[in-house]
Design goal:
It contains seven helices and 19 strands. It is α/β, with parallel strands linked by helices and 317 residues long. The two termini are 29 Å apart. This is Exonuclease.
Amino acid sequence: MLKGDILEDFLIENEFGFYCAYGNFYIDPKYPVAKAIISHAHGDHAVPGHRAIYATANTIAFMQHRFTKQPLDSYIHKNYRESFTVGDVVISFFPAGHILGSAQILMEYKGVRYLYTGDYKLQQDITCEPLEYVKADVLITETTFADPAVIHPDPIEEIKKLNSTNLNIMLGCYALGKAQRITNLINTYCPLKTVYTHHNIAPIHRIYDDKGFVKLNYEIYNRKALKDGQNKVYLVPPMTFHNYFRAKNVLRVFASGWKRLQNYNDMTLFISDHIDWDDLNNFITEVEPTEIWTVHGEGIHLKNHYVGKIEVRNILK
């Protein structure tokens, strides 16, 4: 197929989400639509109510856990690297390295390859499928941490900070993806510590145990867990962490790449499941795009960095 021209309106953002008129589908829509292509199962990318949902098997597993009223026949499972057509657009999923089941979405139309990354990371994480590099003419990338001032530290060295104390720790983290990665890191690099999970995190751990790549060692939290002994780490979701800001006899730690979420804690833990500035640029080098369209963040640093080299624009403009 001869390569065509890049269509500036190939993917646009409207009140429902990212819409492709050439295939008549949405990517990660915020509200129910007829056809939804879902990159991963986090709540800001996956919602219920769609008539047809295209996603990987593991993303569907998490959505089925969360959205119990969603009809099972609305899910359309697609494997990584399996091509399928929606409207006039050929689509393929490739691992994004963000969480278990997360996918980059490659869309091919009239000889032009448009790659929507969703959320992704290059750092090693054996609890999910590792990111794969895909060549594309247009890279549609998240820019959550697209700032030269943001460089994520080594997650192994970060998790080893927990070894500096025998006191029990209340560790805030997102229930899907982050909690499982943290559990595996603690199991591996803090072997003297016992991991306890909040009751909202435990079901996600069980799905990872069933469908993932490593066995997670943990116990379910009970009221007596942190009252006796030492070297215990209690994983809690963000809302629980913020509600228990006066928790006694525990150290408060929150796993995130955001500096603001490290404020007022007893220890910093900069572990992010998003790319930082260096990894973003390494990724761009591998993809070799002609244009970069930015979503989910601030793209001005990227635009300035590639001025005169690669056209960079926000998808809204």
